[in-house]
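subagent[fold] <- orchestrator: predict structure for attached chain, return C-alpha cells only, no commentary.
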Amino acid sequence: TPDPISLNSLIHDMVEAGCEYAFMEVSSHAIHQNRIAGLEFKVAVFSNITHDHLDYHKTFKEYITAKKKFFDDLESNAYALVNLDDKNAGIMIQNTVARTRTYALKSMADFKAKVIENHFDGMLMDVDGIQFYSLLSGDFNAYNILAVYSTAKLLGFSATEILEKLSSLSGAEGRFQIIRSEKKKAFAVVDYAHTPDALLNVLKTINGLRTRNEKLICVVGAGGDRDKSKRPEMAEIASRLSDMLILTSDNPRTEDPEEILKDMMMGVDPAKKSKTLVISNRMEAIKTAVNFAQLGDIVLVAGKGHEKYQEINGVKHPFDDKKILEELFELD
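subagent[fold] -> orchestrator:
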C-alpha cells in the first residue's frame, strides 16, 4: 500500500481512465501508518489473520488491533464483510458502524459455499445453491472465490453474472502454480507461502488431492530480518506434512543464511531428520528436489512465488523459482 499522496494520485488516474471500481489490499502497516487516510471504502473484507508481520507489530494483539482499526473507521453506509470461519472475525466488527455481512464454508453465514470436488486443475463448488466449476484448487482458493462473489453481490451484481466471470478466472502467478514434467510425469507447485499458516494450507491442499502413491518433496526457507519465531514452526509443518524436506534460503537479506537454517532445523522432529536436507543455495536445493523426484512425484517450492529476485545483503539478484523448474524439467 503506497503513501496517501501516491495512492490518491493512482486512484485519480483510474477515475480519469474510466475505471468504476478499485480493489486494493490494505496492509496492517498501511493502516497503522495512516496511508489510507481520507479514503472512503464501500466494502471492507476480512479474510483471515495469521502469524505474520510480528517483526513490525511485536505482538499478535497489536497486529489484530491494527487490522481492526480499518473496520472501526468505516462509514455507516459501507459494508464490513468478514469470513465467519476465522475465530477473529467477531473482533474485527465489534466496534464498526458499517453494515456487517458474513461469508463461510463451514459456518452459517449470509454467503455460503462448499467444495464438492477438488482436483489439481480445478474444483466443483456450490455457491449459494448454484454449482459452478473453477480453474483454481484448494479450500484457500474457495474462500477467496467466495469473498469475491460476496463482495460483487454487495455491489449489486447478479449471482449468474459473477459466477460466469469467476469460472474463467485462472490463478495468480506464483500462487499454487503448477509446472509439469512430461518426461518424468511428475510436477511441481510454486507457491508464495512464506508464513506457517500459508505453508500449512498449501501442504494440506496437496495432501488432500494426491493419491499417496507418490512422494511429496518440499523445498522451503524463511526470510531474513523478519520474525524469527515462525522459522521453526514452518520447518515443523513442512517436515510433518511432506515425505522429504529440503530447507534452503529464501531472501536472507542481511542475515547469514546458515543461521536462518539453524533456526528452522530447531522445529524439525528428530524422527524426521533422516528425511531432511539442508542446502542453503536455493538453486541447488531446487535441483536436488527435481533429481529426487520420480514418476508421479510432487515437488513443492514454497516461499517466493511470483518474485523474480533473491535479496542477499541489500542486493536483489535475478531468481525465478518457476523459470528454474521449467528449465530443470526440460533437461530431464
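orchestrator: received. Logging for downstream: The chain has two domains: 4-166, 177-331. The two ends are 42 Å apart (CA to CA).
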